[in-house]
Amino acid sequence: xxxxxxxxxxxxxxxxxxxxxxxxxxxxxxxxxxVAHQILNTGKSELRYLALSTKERVEVVEFxxxxxxxxxxxxxxxxxxxxxxxxxxKVPFKMYEK
Length: 98
Prior knowledge:
Blueprint: E1 2-6, E2 8-13, E3 16-21, E4 25-26, E5 37-40, E6 48-51, E7 58-63, E8 68-75, E9 78-86
């Protein structure tokens, strides 16, 4: 969830764009590309916002605008695994070798 503190901008949400202004509140659910979201400063001044999150121990985030995916496991500040990959990269892998 995001709260716009000051400035103006644009919210990309899926394949649509919405204007943002001071005091707007945005809720963005997890999911696929249809709910992917990005906040852009398209105004003439600094855009400030407060972001609130659930702090899940395992988080996978797809960035469709840059074709990347981020994986994070662990507590904030004490990650067991944290990595960003390009979606197109493929590594041959067999789960079980016989």
